[in-house]
Write a structure and sequence with these properties.
Two copies of one chain form a homodimer. In chain A, helix 3 (138-154) packs antiparallel against helix 4. Chain A has 326 residues and is of the alpha+beta class. In chain A, strand 8 (287-294) and strand 9 form a beta hairpin. The termini of chain A are far apart. Chain A is built from ten helices and nine strands. Helix content of chain A is 31%, strand content 19%. Chain A has three domains: 9-125, Nucleoside Triphosphate Pyrophosphohydrolase, CATH 3.90.79.10; 135-219, no CATH class; 245-314, Orthogonal Bundle (Arc Repressor Mutant, subunit A). Chains A and B meet through strand 1, strand 3, helix 1, strand 4 and strand 5 of A and strand 1, strand 3, helix 1, strand 4 and strand 5 of B. The structure holds a DNA duplex (27 and 27 nucleotides).
DNA sequence: TCAAAAGTGTTATCCTTACACCCATGT
DNA sequence: ACATGGGTGTAAGGATAACACTTTTGA
């Protein structure tokens, strides 16, 4: 219970830097688009000698490497798994990675990115089953669920499964009458990982329940466990949206209510009811009209709004509590 | 953006191991009761060579050192701050600590603890202002708020304060008409730390706005940043209670509804409305009657209940959504 | 018979959801 | 004039919050 000797380990900070542009949420990935290498999240070492806290360290290397201006930053989770970063026979250096979510505005930094070997990639490339804006994604019924149901059945006679694969499937993917919960992004990814159905799992030496050749690629894979970190980031952002005014970190200073709604929809991956959304924003007094209108949308000109920073000081939890289906 | 060399750091796992007994939530602390040393949370090194994941590592040293059986385990936050663990002039080894919340039943392990140099300590000793079960704690109006208001005023003319000290005070401590939010345990502790009003802050070299001699001890201090980790644990547990059936990890297999209510009240630190609490538990179908009754309470015998494990598989988010004042 | 705790029934209110119609502009 | 998106009012239903009284035991 005391000051035992501790094993030295390397600590890296891995960031999911998110922006929304043209109704597409995107995440900054390192590496050339054309290279055959897997996409990976940007990461940097944490050096306690130069930086007092993780967050300062993170901001520092993000700034240095990408010239990006990030606003909101939040710690997600710390991953220490072996076997997620490396093959079973690997005995190399051990690494702990602290995952972070950071929000930015793409327009701010279009130029900055050209220098760095980094680009914004729509996040639904990595999680196609998470985008329900145009209805239920086809990949669910065509590939994912049939395979997962097979996996659930194949574990049927193993008595050592605690909660039951079928039940987990119901909750995470909303089968059997359960509702789809857009916040369970991480749970869904982890289930796919456990079932050996994402490339990362097979790379880590996990065997799927069905023949590998029968498994189509389920979203683009990423390096190391970066897709897991991204899943954590999306889940956290989707949840946070509902009780903190974080969307505005992703919006330009002035915007129409429809633009705001589209951004929220882009993040949460589902449709929102227009009237209810507007009332929500209005009664929460999250925004105020600038007096200007925008004619850029083609139709009746839309009133422009800006975020009311004061709400942060007025109400305890100002967010967009998008209800059942808002 | 790539495989830069990483600085080696030591990684420790620090656990807030919580149990509730006799309507008092308590946390396991290391060190002798009589010793003059500050209480500290148990912690152990993370050795990636022996343990594949943090959680496995944590369970392993907790088991080895305390013979305690912990059920639920959850990662809280990873702290990398220098200056929170050490004095400004310290240049020793750098440590990152991953904080964990673990739940256990005290009765399970009364004996186990005698061997280990550890004991359960009521958590409200460290946070007396968090216990509202007998009404608003006197320490708030007698000590904390007058001092904090002075601190807020003293920063008035400093234009470089982003959200305004007065506003933060309102939200965290519910002054000026704002409601008290029992989940903001960490925010309150951090505010006290920033104001230099807890011993840990002064130990770290932070100067309070008022004369040190005028500040009474505000709760018992802990070693390092362990009180901050405990605040994180309490906050997380209070929040989780509302959407996951975690209370039952702290209850004996059979219990009366009043015992369940008292446990929830002990954790959330406030009173609950009896009828509404009962209806909540009932309509959520979280428990089922065993058929037995307990006459131990002195009065009409109470029916005994047990947790219905099945709910975990039936409903997506089974918790005790204790509303405004339930 | 009295104290002490268990247990129940009902109503007012608010918040959430759903629905359908009118308005201002560019082409 | 018409297509396109912007903008509003209202009613039904469910969940929440507040209320006070009866029941069963031990002393």
């Amino acid at each position: 219970m005391a000051d035992t000797h501790l094993t030295p380990i390397e600590v890296g900070l891995t960031a999911a830097i998110v922006a929304v542009e043209a109704e597409e949420p995107a995440v900054l990935v390192a590496g050339d688009a054309r290279a055959e290498t897997r996409a990976g999240l940007p990461f940097g070492p944490f050096d306690p000698l130069s930086h007092r806290t993780f967050e300062i360290g993170l901001r520092s290397w993000v700034q240095a490497q990408t010239a990006l201006h990030v606003g909101y930053v939040e710690q997600l989770y710390t991953f220490g798994d072996r076997g997620r970063h490396a093959r079973p026979d690997d005995t190399g250096a051990h690494m702990v990675s602290v995952g972070y979510l950071a929000l930015t505005r793409m327009a701010d930094n279009a130029a900055a990115l050209r220098a760095a070997a980094a680009r914004f990639e729509p996040w639904y490339r990595f999680f196609p089953w998470e985008d329900w804006r145009d209805g239920r994604p086809a990949i669910l019924d065509e590939s994912i669920l049939p395979l997962l149901e097979q996996w659930a059945r194949s574990g049927k006679d193993d008595p050592a499964r605690p909660p039951g694969r079928g039940e987990r499937l119901r909750h995470t993917f909303g089968t059997g009458g359960s509702p789809w919960d857009e916040e369970k992004v991480l749970d869904r990814y982890e289930l796919l990982y456990e079932a050996g159905m994402v490339e990362e799992a097979r790379r880590d030496g996990r065997n799927p329940a069905v023949a590998k050749s029968k498994i189509p690629p389920l979203g683009e894979p990423m390096r190391f466990d970066h897709r897991r970190i991204l899943a954590t980031a999306i889940a956290r952002l989707r949840a946070k949206l509902k009780y903190r005014p974080v969307v505005f970190e992703l919006m330009p200073p002035e915007f129409t209510l429809t633009e705001l709604q589209r951004t929220v929809e882009a993040i949460s991956g589902r449709h929102l009811h227009k009237q209810n959304f507007r009332r929500l924003v209005e009664t929460a007094a999250l925004v105020e009209p600038t007096g200007e209108t925008s004619t850029a949308t083609g139709g009746r000109p839309a009133a422009l709004f800006r975020f009311r920073r004061e709400v942060m000081q007025e109400r305890p939890a100002p967010g967009l509590r998008l209800g059942g289906r808002a």
